[in-house]
Design a protein that fits this description.
The protein is an alpha+beta fold. The protein has one domain (8-30, 43-308). It is built from 6 helices and 11 strands. The strands form 2 sheets. Strands 1, 2, 5, 6, 7, 8, 9, 10 and 11 form a 9-stranded mixed sheet that branches. It has a two-stranded antiparallel sheet with strand order 3-4. Helix 2 (71-86) packs across helix 3, helix 2 (71-86) runs parallel beside helix 4 and helix 3 crosses helix 4. The longest helix has 16 residues, at 71-86. The termini are far apart. It comes from Saccharothrix xinjiangensis. Keywords: Signal. Residues 1-25 form the signal peptide. This is Peptidase C39-like protein.
Length: 312
Amino acid sequence: MLRKTVLAAVATAAAALTLPGVASADPVLTAPERCARISDLAGPDFHVRQCGASDVDQFRAGFAGNGNSHCGPASLYNVLHYWGRQKDAPVGWLTTEVGNLNPTDPADYNVVTNSIGRIATDAGWSHEDGTNTTNLRAAWNVATAPAKNSGWSVDSGFVNSHSAADFAGDLARKLDWGPLQLVYGRYADGPQDSLKRTGGHLVTVVSAKGSFNGDVVELKLADPGRAPDHGQGSYLATQSAYEALDVKLERVGFKQYVPSKDDPNTPVNEALLPGTYKDVERWELTGPRYVSDTTRQMVEGFNWFVMSPPVG
């Protein structure tokens, strides 16, 4: 979570973007594994794989809390990197073009850090609320403004796991356009056999395999918060090795407890009032690197993004 007043470290990072870009561009992006593009949407089953998204770390020196709440900006950077690097879309800010950066090159590390900081600023990052999917799409609009000004078509949207008639199918179809930004909540036990949201996390989806109208989906994720070298040595000043983490989503229904919130415009502390309950349908995320004894990970939805170059 980030303060409503953007911290000086982030402001400094954003300001650094006004300087001429000196980052070197390696024409071959270091991939998390050998990758082959897959676009199989025919029949009752689907398998989609996107290649070329980055897998940047959110934990970096200079960010508040060393970046512990920068999952939203970092996972969006991965999406922008795909469009800039793989599709040659002119995305970025001022003199910084995302397509010219290689996050695995130490020479580009500071510029990538500045770029993540810029996304945080454009997404209204705050200590209390962090970033949300709506504000991150606003940051996408800022970063893709050069493309729109060059005649590219740009769009984005959000799919809610509770209200989507075919969440699995929607995820596959939108992923076929480009990487997705998925949000899940961390839910702990609440009163009366309910689950209560205690926090959340955002990741980048690069692969999906399952069935249309199905109840289970297998994903591969670029997760900015689960670097293999986290907490080791100079991890706050270096980019970790890329990974594609395997997870499974399974449709579940449960009763969610929603605590009451205080209204600062009234003399009464509404937070002392009893909370409410609602029945929801989500998709539980599990995987070898997503094990917890205290919470369950429930996917709440995803941001999708698409771009197309000018015609003619």
